Amino acid sequence: MKKRLIIIILIIMFTATSIFLTSCVKRNNEQINNVQADDSNKASSNNKIQLWYYIFSKGIYEHEILNIVDKAKQFCEENKIPLEINGYDRDTMSKEDYILKRNIAMASGNVIIIDNIENLHTIAKHHADYTKVDNYNNLIDEYKDRFCIPLGVKYEAISLQNEVMQYYDISTEKTLMTYTDYLELKQAMKIKGAKFELNNKEYNQLVEYYMYKNNFLFLNEDDETLKDKNEFKKILKNIIIGSCNDILLYNDGDLKIKNEARDIYDKKSDIILDIDNFNDISDIIIPGSYNSIVTSSQHGKYQIDIINKSFYINPYGLNYSPNLYLYKKITDERIFDLVNHIANEETYIMIQTNVVNDKNSFIHRYAPVFKIDKAKEYLKLNDKLEFVDDYWSTDIRKLVSLSYEMIVKNEEGLKEIADAYFSNFDYNFEIKYFIKNTINDIAQKLSGDALSLEKFNPEDGEINKLIDKKVDEFVTNWAVYNN
Questions:
Q1: Using CA atoms, how far apart are residues 483 and 246, in angstroms rounded to an integer?
Q2: pLDDT in tens, 411-425
Q3: Which residues contact 164 (CB under 8 A, 6 or more apart)?
Q4: How far apart are CA 251 and CA 86, in angstroms?
């Protein structure tokens, strides 16, 4: 009797577990199938346009998103277009639950999403044809042929001490540079004798230099190299070996992290190159950054702090901006009219206007993504796109003009900024973490707890076997989890 009872209990537990697992699998599969649904009978016919948004941050960002939603709502009311608005924030729903709910709803089609770009990567391969939107032609070219349309892009500029460059007789004429310009600058300084203390920030930048040299720094879902296993493996190995050689040559092979500080400190000159202090207003100087240049209370401080400094655009401060995404399944062509009404220079100007002390105040919160016409007046630019607001000093006007030169007119610099903006930073983090972990394994194999690469030799058979094994495992797992 006792045995029979145990058997019955086991059968009940097995059945319950099977039902639960089947339910979980079914839910997950439904999400995937719904996102990838064609215009077939996988969803019921529904011509109502859906507008989805998620507010991850209260305050100014919330104000901007709600203004965009109101603009869409008014257009649909005036043109008698059915519109269903689905908006959430962190207080009403977690980001993960919102994305699941949104992706399932996409099966019915006619979906517009206004969101931070990091919430759009999971559906990057399923966007509509944006060339059907009239205003798409007015986008700056480097923002075209992407999976969403940014409505403005926020930039962050980090300051550098020119004194360090001067110590190594390196020109400081380039006041504003891209991130890869900055990485090249640091490498030139190393060649001339600089010894940057190996903290976490320096370690990341060191690895990123070799990712950049292998065209692997800014990756997204469309990169073909990620789908070619052999090429993927080859590049990862090149980055690992290059990074190891760099540590051996310029840091005496020492892989131990000296401190948790996030400043880039040159031990030879005893000067900090890149001060990571976001409370220092001098770190953030160009339009479209977290702290606007148009902040009159900081006027005097600005005039002092930009002297003897250069700046680089931080690619990891780009993604906090509103974007428009249109799903590929469309049964009501009027949705393109609505997208056209939202994605334009007028909306860019609108999100620059924020309520400050109960007054409308225009600030340089976002840099433009559409060809500048009407926005020139608001941005205080002349026809040459030079910053001409006499309230600011000559040095500041020159720096801001340089920023517009880069973010609007300089094709090479702008392409890097756009590539960084649309890149998947989870990819960057996963690859960088793997590379650093592998380098640590190499150092441990060579020196134990000393964590030294002093004996590193890229021709060593055992080391090559270790690298190849780690790379094979990583690329195999990548194919499973990211495809």
A1: 33
A2: 899 999 999 999 999
A3: 189, 194, 266, 269, 271, 272, 273
A4: 53
